[in-house]
Amino acid sequence: MKTVNKKKKSEKIRTEYDFSKAERGKFHRPLDKGYTVSINKKNGTTEVKQYVLTEGTILLAPDVAEYFPDSESVNEALRSLIQIMDKVPTKKYKQRKTPALQVAEGKRR
Q1: Which of 26, 43, 57, 105 could form a disulfide with 53 if both were Cys (CB 3.0 to 4.6 A apart)?
Q2: Domain membership flag for residue 23
Q3: How many domains is the chain built from?
Q4: In a domain? residue 48
Q5: Using the 8-state DSSP alphabet, how is residue 72 labeled?
Q6: Model confidence, pTM
Q7: Residue ranges of the alpha helices (H) in the chain?
Q8: Residues 6+ apart with CB under 8 A from 39
Q9: CA 82/CA 32 separation, integer angstroms
Q10: What's residue 95's pLDDT?
Q11: What range defines the domain where residue 61 resides?
C-alpha cells in the first residue's frame, strides 16, 4: 500500500530550486573513517570537532541492519550462530604433498 505524502503549500519546493542535476550521496563518506564537524558561532569563531568510532564499535551494512532493530538482537543472533558453529565439525582437508624437487648435480671440470 502506497502512502501519499500530503504537503502544505508552504512545504512545497520552490520552482527556482533545480535538482535535475543533483547527485545523491555525492559528499557521503563512510562513518568508520571518522568525520569532522565545524561549528560557526555567533561571535565569529569556529569550533572544529573530530569524531571517530570508539574501539569495539561495529557497523552493520544497511541490508543487514534492516533485520535487526537493536544491538541486543544482533548479539542474540550471533550467539546462536556461535552455538551452531561449535556443534558442526570442521572439515579437515587433505593437503597434497608436493614431490620433493631433485637438484641435478652437474659435472665439474
Answers
A1: 57
A2: no
A3: 1
A4: yes
A5: H
A6: 0.40
A7: 62-65, 71-87
A8: 46, 47, 48, 49
A9: 26
A10: 58
A11: 29-87
Q: How confident is the model over 2-26, as pLDDT tens digits?
A: 555 555 556 777 888 888 888 888 7
Beta pairing partners, 46: 40
Q: Is the CA virtual torsion 58, 61, 63, 66 positive or negative?
A: positive
Distance (Å, whole) CA 5 – CA 11? 11
The three cell numbers of residue 49 are 570537532
In a domain, 78, yes or no: yes
Assigned domain for 72 exists: yes
Closest CA to 31 of 70, 59, 68: 59
Report the candidate in 98, 25, 12, 87 with the shortest Cα–Cα distance to residue 62: 25
